[in-house]
Amino acid sequence: MTALGRPRRVVGLTGTRADFGKMRDVYLGLQAAPGIEFSLVVTGMHLLHRYGYTLREIERAGLRALHHVPNQVEDEPMALVLANSINSITRLLLAESADMVLVHGDRVEALAGALAGSLTNTRVAHVEGGEVSGTIDDAIRHSLSKHAHVHFVANDHARARLLQLGEEAERVLVVGSPEADALAVAADSDLAPVRDHYGTPAPPYGVLALHPVTTELELNRRHAEAVVDGVLAAGGSWVVIDPNNDEGTHDVRAALERLDGRPDVVRLPSMRFPAYLTLVRHAEVVVGNSSSGVREAPVLGTPSVDVGSRQTDRSPAASVRHVPAVAAEVAGAIREARAAGRSRPEEHFGSVGAAARIVEAVCGDEVWDLGLQKRFVDRPLAEGG
């Protein structure tokens, strides 16, 4: 309860099918928690029909207090999406008299939520800060972290990076990743319900998930064509997941359209996150530049081929083969992955139960006792740094 005797008003924010899948149990836990009045901003891809209008999945999950916040038209530049989002989310936080905004990851909508919260003196809680990846995602994630008042991080490596960014140690809580909960379920999941619902093929099949790289807009079409050429050269059955809504998505889509109508290819605009993890668990290889290839696939024991720069430095997993966007190298890496077969699952996310730990922290007093005025903590550089 607040000092005024009312429940603490926590506003979550989701902009993509992936972040909702990871955070769903956190949101449901907060919705049921005593002393918390929870609502969820639904924006981004969720409200675009081309991407499956996944607002319906959120409604089916049982979340009740939803704010529909359209923030873009298709292929709108990220800078405009950010501006649109800040404007709408700021007004919503003020209208709701929000006490906390809860954001996840490194998407532009999450950055908008953090900026809106920080500049309206609304407490900002960030899940999975302190991680690294390629392209603009790093800058977004670290910028967001500097506006967050409390950090729920996956592991000690992420915590160390936030301390390196000058964050106060008491603001950084190692809780694991909510992803671990979903991965634990997927590890023992049955493929049959996924096949029945989505019409995906029986094993063996590969998963192709390719997204635009926002810092390489002039290369997206050429690189996507090379990946498609590599997939065709490698042959086999494929499930193709459409790209996200980042700037440049039309170039990736244009290349993927070459796969339409092939009897050995099923192309889907989106999948529910648990279903997608099940699909990855039973695949012989994941190909593209999705974070799922370097994060979820190794945990599930599925080999992957990571193409290009989008996931630079994201994973040390031995089951991931990193190649440039050259058709022959993509095809060769796919064949190598198939020949090597499944790998021993690799653990990157900490123990199961992160969602419950985040809910417990938000319901407790520790994160609310942290001041809204942050300070930068100077720490000695390592020798040679």
Word description of this protein:
This protein has helices at 17-32, 55-60, 78-96, 108-119, 137-147, 156-164, 178-186, 192-198, 220-234, 249-256, 273-282, 291-294, 296-300, 327-340, 354-363, 366-369, and strands at residues 8-14, 36-43, 66-69, 100-104, 123-127, 150-153, 172-174, 206-209, 238-241, 265-268, 285-288, 304-307, 320-323. Helix 3 packs across helix 4 and helix 9 crosses helix 14 (327-340). The protein is of the alpha/beta class. Strands 3-2-1-4-5-6-7 form a seven-stranded parallel β-sheet, sandwiched between helices. The chain folds into two domains: 8-177 and 350-369, Glycogen Phosphorylase B (Rossmann fold); 184-340, Rossmann fold, CATH 3.40.50.2000. Pfam families: Epimerase_2. InterPro entries: UDP-GlcNAc_Epase (IPR020004), UDP_GlcNAc_Epimerase_2_dom (IPR003331), WecB-like (IPR029767).
